[in-house]
Amino acid sequence: MKVLAICAIAVLSITNAKAQFSTGADIVSSYVWRGQPQDAGTPNIQPYASFTTGKFTVGSWASSSFIGTVKEVDLYATYAFSSAFALTLTDYNYNFGTQPNYFDYTKTTGHIFEGTLAYTGSVFSASANTMFAGADKNSSDKQAFSTYVELGYQITPLAKVFAGGLLSTGSGYASAKTGLTNIGLKVSKSIAITDKFSLPVYGIIGANTASKNAFFVAGVTL
Length: 222
Fold this sequence. Notes:
By secondary structure, the chain is mostly beta strands. It has a single domain (about 1-10, about 20-220), classed as Porin (Beta Barrel), CATH 2.40.160.40. The protein has 1 helix and 14 strands. It has one helix spanning about 1-15, and strands spanning about 20-30, 30-35, 35, 45-55, 55-65, 70-80, 85-90, 110-120, 125-135, 145-155, 160-170, 180-190, 200-210, 215-220. The chain has a 12-stranded antiparallel beta barrel. A two-stranded antiparallel ribbon has the order 2-3. The radius of gyration is 18 Å and the shape is globular.
C-alpha cells in the first residue's frame, strides 16, 4: 500500500502532462482469473476507474458476484516506458469474508502485492507477474513469490489466442499445481444499438490443463 501511495503522489505531482480520467465496467458470466475460477460460476460485475498523466497511471479494479460471495477491490500503479512496455505494481485484496479488515497490512494481511512487466505489441503480447509481498505464502509460511507468465497472439483485430502458466505457486493462487493454467481464445464484437452507440461484447473459451478444467466466459463492456 505504501508503494502504491508513493506512486500516486508522484503521479499527482506531475502537472506538465495532460491528465485523463477513465471509468467503466464489465459484466461477466463468471469470474475466471488466469485460468482459475474465482467463484461458483455466478455472474460478476467488474468496475474500474483510473487516472493517467504522462506515463503514469493509477487506478482501481474490482469484482463482485451477483450473489455476494466474491468481493475484490484492487489498486494499481503503472509506468509506461513506451507504448509497448510497462511496469505495474498491484495491490490485490479479495474475499472480505475471510479477511474483513481491508486496512490490515500486518502479518495477518489479506493483501497480496505483485509486480508485472508487460509487452503489448500490435500482434504479440507477453507478461511476467510475480507476487513479492503480502499473503502469498508457501507451506512453510514464507513468501512464495508465485510467478505467472503469459504470451498472446492477435490473430485478427477481434480475435486473440493466449497461453499462460504458473512457474511457481503459493497461497496467492487457488491452484497448488504449476504448469499451463490458462490457454484459450478470446473473440470480441461490437453490437450496434443505434447509429451512434455500439455495445462491446466478448467471449473467452479456455482450459486449465494443470487442473484439467475448461471454462467459457461471456462478457459485456459498459
